[in-house]
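F.,

This is the one I mentioned.
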């Protein structure tokens, strides 16, 4: 089917690396690419390389269920995710590339009294932070999602929901491609199929990275943005991170006619679903309980996920699943990211986004770029230092995480 589509123009170059860069970003996922883009655009730093062991955006960026929202509980995270939301709202225009950001609203369902208390608390906190949010009752939910079973005849009847109208979905690949294309236009080098296999550290400061393909490439500063592989890079640097890498899987159905024009998430029966523009139901649920680096998931998780979705939407019971896959999520003990300096001078880490970093992509790149450019953490990044696990200033967002873990 690709006959007659042979001479497509390259959207970014495939450059020969320089010997030295001002900044090297390890990891060409959405966050790494966004960081490179904002380094160039906002700070004029264009002598930058993004080193990616596979293909750009092929990690969790390509594997997630694309849910975007900013309804987090605590001020620190609410500000960060809302910063991202505001960037999402202008991103297609900024990149001149359609990332298909669709603000179709996100429902987080409550099925117990405690769920509803948590929802009420979170929505109130959101509104105090200027973030849109409402608490809906089952009748209001039914008006938004008529096909969902909002009756009392279920195992865990729906008692209400939080509703963030500005939440929604975006086209994940387009986000990676748009940032890559934008960064390339500023002269950033993207080195694909190139793995960082070691770090070059002298007198406590990083001075370069060792790659499997080009040997050592020198750098003034290095940002590690490798999601599930963060522990591996940290080990090269000689310190530990409190991160666990788990498989998280997602699946899509065969395409069906438009039936669901919003995003539904339930932590209690534990599943989430939206419908892509192509018509597939995009579905996910929990992490696999064990640690691992295999980009696939286990069968019990698929079964559990489908139970939850069919419980919410009995009408989907005979829709066939088309594909299933997994990513490796980097979960932190307080369900919040690490955006931080490290014990190694000029080495910065951006990781720990776990099950929920897609929504943060532009915001994460924006604040990380500012931190790499100046050498000082951006004010919004400061609370997310890795050293919070020493001083105890944790920001517990387990309640707002879309995936229980
Ligand atoms: P990645 O996209 O994983 O990029 C990291 C890159 O680093 C990879 O491309 C990898 O190849 C590269 N790399 C690793 N090691 C090296 C090395 N040594 N040298 C060179 N390159 C290296 N978040 C949401 O907000 N909403 C959702 O609906 C959502 N659903 C999800 C569903 C699933 C199934 C999964 C797996 C995740 C989901 N997430 C969701 C989380 C989200 O996908 C991630 O938090 C986010 O995409 C992380 O982006 P990233 O750029 O940091 O990581
Ligand atoms: O963080 O909103 C989220 C999410 C949804 C699915 C996976 N993560």
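My design for it:
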């Amino acid at each position: 089917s690709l006959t007659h589509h042979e001479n497509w123009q390259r959207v970014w170059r495939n450059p020969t690396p320089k010997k030295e860069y001002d900044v090297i970003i390890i990891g060409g996922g959405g966050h790494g690419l966004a960081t490179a883009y904002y380094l160039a655009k906002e700070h004029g730093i264009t002598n930058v390389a993004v080193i990616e062991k596979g293909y750009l955006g092929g990690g969790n960026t390509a594997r997630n269920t694309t849910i975007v929202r900013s309804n987090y509980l605590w001020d620190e995270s609410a500000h960060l995710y809302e910063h991202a939301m505001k960037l999402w709202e202008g991103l297609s225009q900024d990149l001149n590339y359609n990332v298909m950001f669709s603000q179709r609203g996100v429902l987080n369902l409550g099925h117990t009294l405690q769920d509803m208390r948590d929802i009420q608390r979170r929505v109130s906190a959101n509104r105090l932070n200027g973030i849109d949010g409402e608490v809906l009752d089952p009748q209001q939910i039914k008006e938004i999602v008529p096909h969902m079973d909002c009756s009392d005849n279920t195992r865990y009847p729906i008692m209400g929901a939080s509703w963030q109208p500005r939440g929604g979905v975006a086209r994940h690949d387009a986000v990676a491609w748009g940032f890559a294309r934008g960064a390339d236009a500023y002269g950033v080098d993207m080195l694909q199929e190139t793995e960082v296999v070691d770090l070059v550290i002298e007198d406590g400061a990083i001075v370069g990275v060792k790659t499997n393909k080009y040997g050592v490439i020198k750098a003034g500063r290095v940002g590690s943005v490798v999601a599930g592989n963060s522990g591996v890079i940290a080990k090269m640097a000689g310190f530990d991170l409190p991160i666990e890498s788990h498989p998280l899987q997602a699946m899509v159905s065969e395409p069906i006619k438009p039936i669901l024009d919003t995003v539904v998430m339930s932590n209690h029966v534990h599943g989430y679903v939206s419908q892509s523009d192509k018509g597939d139901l995009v579905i996910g649920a929990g992490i696999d309980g064990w640690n691992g680096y295999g980009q696939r998931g286990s069968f019990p998780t698929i079964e559990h996920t489908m139970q939850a979705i069919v419980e919410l939407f009995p009408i989907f019971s005979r829709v066939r699943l088309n594909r299933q896959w997994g990513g490796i999520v980097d979960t932190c003990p307080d369900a919040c990211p690490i955006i931080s300096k490290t014990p190694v001078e000029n080495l910065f880490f951006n990781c720990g986004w776990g099950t929920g970093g897609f929504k943060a992509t532009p915001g994460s790149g924006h604040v990380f770029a500012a931190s790499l450019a100046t050498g000082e953490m951006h004010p919004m990044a400061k609370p997310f230092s890795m050293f919070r696990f020493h001083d105890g200033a944790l920001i517990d967002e387990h309640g707002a995480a879309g995936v229980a873990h």
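The two ends are 42 Å apart (CA to CA).

Talk soon.
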